[in-house]
Amino acid sequence: MWYCGLPGSVPLCSDAPLIKVPLLFPLPPREQPIYTTRAHVFQIDPTTKKNWVPASKQAVTVSYFYDSTRNSYRIISVDGSKVIINSTITPNMTFTKTSQKFGQWADSRANTVFGLGFASEQQLAKFSEKFQEVKEAAKLARDKSQDKGETLSNHSQEESGRDTPSSNRASSINGTDDEKFLHVDPEEAVLQTENEHLKSAIEQSNTSAKKWETELQTLRENNARLVDALQESSANVESWKKQLGACKEESDTLREKIAELEAQCNEANQEKQRNVQLSVRVQELEAELHDKEQELENLRKQAEIIPQLMAECESITTKLQTAESRNKELEGRVDGLQLDIDDSQQKQVNMKGELKKFMDMLDGKIDELHEFRQGLSKLGVDN
């Protein structure tokens, strides 16, 4: 499984060891959330300082909190009962976008780098803008606290320098309180007012210092508990590393078995293809066998007709012999008729010759008769 928002497509390993730190202290009532979103949380691998280790199996709530008393900002994310992000924002921090849906920042106090994978680019852009706003606000708060510290130190120095003359003046005045009040200079009244303000400020600073000392002691105790939890988690990490090595060996063995099974599956697929080809060939042979059986059946039917055909063939043979004998006789007759025809043709030729001779003779006779008629006609004319 891969998370598309990480640069380089870092794999999400659900079996990666995580340091489970219980929520040892609740959020103070003075802290209020100012922005909340959801994202996948990652931390840099402390060993390699390159790979990302998922701190949550799914998207969790990530919130910006503002402490009005300390005037500080924190990014906090809790997965169930486990705090996975507790990062106080300082002006030196920088939020870097490493891809379209992934960003990171380094926390020197926690000695780690946090990474957030968002579901969309808009969520990443909004978180980055809020980080920049909170960073600027933290910078302004730091500058104000520095200015306030300088002012308090200057006022304390002025107060130490002014306490002596004011006390001398007060000790030199005798009489009732009303008389003292009437004899007080305006400058001294201003100094007394400033002293009262400085005293109240010092009292407030002392009260704040006590609170800070109490909170510092609480943080030290929490840090001690966190150190114990970290040592315990380091011991757990060693055992988890051993278990991881055993799991890797088992996975290598399983991969080899899977490779063998895949090879067997390939052989089985080849056998299936061969069986399919053989089935197709068997079907073709069955079709051919059916055609041959049909042809054989037709031949058997034809074989039943063969005796009738043989009898017909014999009768036809007899008729053919008879026709051949008749044909020979007719050929003999034809030869005789041909001879007769030749004779008749010869006779016709002879008759034509004789007829021609007769016609020639007739023509001669006709010519003689014509000449005789002409002679007769001349004789008649003469007569």
UniProtKB/TrEMBL annotation:
Location in or out of the cell: Cytoplasm; Postsynaptic density
One term under GO cellular component: postsynaptic density
Pfam families: WH1
Compositionally biased residues, Polar residues: 163-175
Matches recorded under InterPro entries: Homer (IPR045027), Homer_EVH1 (IPR044100), PH-like_dom_sf (IPR011993), WH1/EVH1_dom (IPR000697)
Region called Disordered, residue ranges: 138-182
Superkingdom classification of source: Eukaryota
Molecular function terms from GO: G protein-coupled glutamate receptor binding
Keywords, ordered alphabetically: Coiled coil, Cytoplasm, Synapse
Main localization of the protein described in the UniProt heading: cytoplasm
Domain WH1: 27-138
Gene3D superfamilies noted in UniProt: 1.20.5.1700, Pleckstrin-homology domain (PH domain)/Phosphotyrosine-binding domain (PTB) (2.30.29.30)
Family the UniProt entry places it in: Belongs to the Homer family.
Protein name: Homer protein homolog 2
Native organism: Notothenia coriiceps (black rockcod)
